[in-house]
Amino acid sequence: MSLKFEVLKKTGKTRLGKLHTKHGTIDTPAFMPVGTAGTVKAMMPESVASTGAQILLGNTYHLMLRPGADLVEKMGGLHKFMNWDKPILTDSGGFQVMSLSGLRKLTEEGVTFKSHVDGKKFFLTPEKSMEIQHKLDSNITMCLDECTPYPATYTQAQDSMKMSMRWAKRSKEAFVDREGYGLFGIQQGNVFEDLRQESADKLREIGFDGYAIGGLAVGEGQEEMFKVLDYAPSMLPEDKPRYLMGVGRPDDIVGAVLRGVDMFDCVMPTRSGRTAQAFTKYGTVNIRNARHREDHRPLAEGCSCPLCQNYSRAYLHHLQKCNEVLAIMLLTWHNIQYYQDLMKGLRNAIQEDKLQAFADEFYANQAKGDIDPL
């Protein structure tokens, strides 16, 4: 075990922590912007860092296809290749086992993918996933697993979970342990509590630097997800980071932090930036709406991003109507800044023993909705 995780403070189920890696320290709870193909879309790495982001996520499947792990390794690893000197977590390709189900064949040995780019076939095993992530030089490597879709029968979820646990063992055996790098196991079991417990027990037995909660935010809805999170995090070791994969909306994150989760990732802030959606204290804003046409206000009062500091809603609305790339750049920057500010607010609230008050105010403001100009 070569990643050091400190739990600095606990309030109920919630933890304030620090995760130390070769490329820097991550304050938790933390949100990881998604840099699928070695880039956070519409953002320079320096801009992402300016928001307070301390770690990015890269995607093994996409980087395996383009430009290829061998080339990234030849270029000095993903940190150097994309000019990001902070920590990087790479997912294993397991999510694509589900999301690209029409382009793959799954066996006990691994997954045969048909590339969505050119149709070329690739064979991904737990061992191969570890090799690729090693070449990428990711600080946090994820085990190869199968993300069970929702809904699934108990038998389907059980069979899938058991295979994922066998793959977890193979991933651990293939992982090259070194200082400042670590391997996370992934709990599966769909929405079935006994399967989640069995998965957690097996992962504990194998032993990992951190533990992810997988198989959620795949269509089950927030209420069902929170039901699982009411028990799933506490099944995992107290002294290791807990990562909820692919989540999510700001209200998902606040609810998950209250339930003991430390790390998050989601494409939502960047994808929303490309579809004219902005996150604010008072919920989401669609900047295409005509009500913004003559609005001189910034998108969000008090936000430090370049959009809110320098431009009006009216100008942003104009850029969107003209399909200008600058609109995407500014909105993406704002959304990532919003997410990082939310995580900082959560960390401060935990430190000051004000987490419940912070959460209550957050949900009350979200319920108000964005306020129209007078």
Can you summarize this structure?
This protein has helices at 45-50, 60-65, 69-74, 78-82, 94-99, 126-136, 154-174, 193-206, 222-229, 250-258, 268-273, 306-310, 313-321, 325-351, 355-368; strands at 4-11, 14-21, 24-28, 30-33, 56-59, 88-91, 104-106, 111-114, 121-124, 140-142, 182-187, 210-213, 242-244, 263-266, 277-280, 283-286. It is of the alpha/beta class and 374 residues long. The chain has two domains: 24-91 and 126-266, Alpha-Beta Barrel (TIM Barrel), CATH 3.20.20.105; 274-368, no CATH class.
Overview of the molecule:
The protein has 15 helices and 16 strands. It is of the alpha/beta class and 374 residues long. The model has no long low-confidence stretch (mean pLDDT 95). Strand 12 (210-213), helix 9 and strand 13 (242-244) form a beta-alpha-beta unit. The strands form four sheets. It has an eight-stranded parallel sheet. The longest helix is centred in the C-terminal third of the chain and has 27 residues, at 325-351. Helix 6 crosses helix 7 and helix 10 (250-258) runs antiparallel to helix 15 (355-368). The protein folds into two domains: 24-91 and 126-266, Queuine tRNA-ribosyltransferase-like (TIM Barrel, Alpha-Beta Barrel), CATH 3.20.20; 274-368, no CATH class. It starts with a strand and ends in a 6-residue tail after the last helix.
